[in-house]
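Retry 2 of 3 after timeout on previous attempt. Resubmitting structure tokens to design endpoint.
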């Protein structure tokens, strides 16, 4: 493990390109007053505690904020609508020093929005509801070409690339098959590390040679048996654990990736490398946390670690340390600063506090 000073030196001038689906999050907080409606007794009355709400970049936008919070310079590449959500997203990026000229405006598009509702009940706060708004129209070929042209122009300035390919296919994601094919070709020629977090389309990136970061459910879905895979049984049932490892190793062997990280929800992550046994990287348990954004935190921190010279294993540990911090933050971006990241790393790995 390198010291924090080595990281700071390695990150001087570091610039990360974040490509994918940029959204605007709105975090709404309300309180259950325990009172009952006079008209329908079963429904408790809810009182809004945060009438102004809290807006934050979501999707690939959250990833961009993560890198920025660690100290990296960030350029965003994607498609945005010409609407209020787009203007507010640009405003938030501007406040944080994130460059957004690579977000191509599309007058026929809509900036996706994630509406999240948090319930404050005594000392606990938890997410209870989620309402999302997606783009109604596919991204035109012309917009995709402009995006690729802007990316080509900026490639020589990038130290790493993170692809957040997250919105479901039926909701017109930014990264179309055409864009994915060209991204593979363009980015493969740069030699910079590229990490891909692609919810339902991980299998479509397996020939890219990029670092993949799926969760175990996404791996299992590649075999069409997602309903039979219960996530928390991976550590309790040895046969399920072996099956998971076999399936994931087969997945990696079919890919051109040298290694991949598979996240295990609140149980940490696993490093899979070709011709090697999987390495489980545990984290500390945390009750009543908000897991939203933990995968983004792990990916952002681990890719940063790889750029500054950490091994894939050490990078995964730093990713876990970032996720451990994020799960304790309710609503908004929970990414730690560089100082907080190293503190969490020490808490989890240097003092024998293993999960």
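Retry 2 succeeded. Sequence:
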């Amino acid at each position: 493990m390198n010291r924090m000073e080595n990281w700071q030196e390695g990150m001087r001038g570091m610039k990360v390109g974040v490509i994918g689906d940029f959204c605007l999050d709105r975090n709404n907080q309300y309180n259950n007053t325990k009172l009952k409606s006079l008209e329908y007794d079963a429904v408790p009355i809810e009182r809004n505690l945060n009438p102004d709400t809290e807006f934050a970049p979501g999707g690939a936008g959250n990833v961009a904020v993560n890198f920025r919070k660690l100290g990296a310079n960030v350029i965003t590449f994607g498609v945005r609508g010409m609407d209020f959500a787009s203007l507010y997203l640009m405003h938030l990026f501007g406040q944080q020093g994130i460059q957004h000229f690579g977000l191509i405006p599309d007058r026929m598009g809509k900036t996706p929005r994630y509406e999240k509702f948090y319930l404050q009940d005594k000392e606990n706060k938890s997410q209870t509801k989620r309402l999302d708004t997606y783009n109604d129209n596919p991204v035109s070929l012309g917009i995709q070409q402009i995006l690729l042209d802007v990316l080509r122009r900026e490639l020589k300035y990038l130290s790493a690339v993170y692809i957040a390919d997250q919105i479901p296919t039926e909701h017109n994601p930014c990264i179309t098959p055409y864009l994915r094919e060209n991204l593979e070709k363009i980015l493969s020629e740069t030699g910079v590390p590229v990490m891909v977090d692609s919810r339902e389309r991980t299998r479509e990136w397996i020939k890219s040679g990029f670092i993949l970061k799926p969760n175990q459910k996404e791996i299992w879905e590649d075999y069409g048996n997602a309903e039979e895979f219960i996530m928390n049984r991976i550590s309790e049932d040895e046969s399920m654990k072996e099956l998971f490892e076999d399936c994931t190793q087969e997945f990696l062997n079919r890919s051109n990736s040298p290694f991949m990280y598979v996240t295990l929800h609140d149980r940490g992550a696993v490093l899979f490398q070709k011709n090697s046994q999987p390495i489980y990287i545990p984290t500390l348990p945390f009750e009543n946390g908000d897991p939203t954004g933990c995968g983004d935190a792990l990916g952002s921190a681990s890719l940063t670690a790889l750029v500054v010279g950490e091994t894939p294993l050490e990078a995964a540990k730093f990713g876990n340390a970032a996720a451990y911090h994020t799960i304790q933050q309710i609503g908004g971006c929970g990414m730690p600063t560089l100082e907080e990241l190293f503190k969490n790393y020490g808490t989890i790995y240097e003092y024998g506090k293993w999960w």
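Attempt log closed. The two ends are 20 Å apart (CA to CA).
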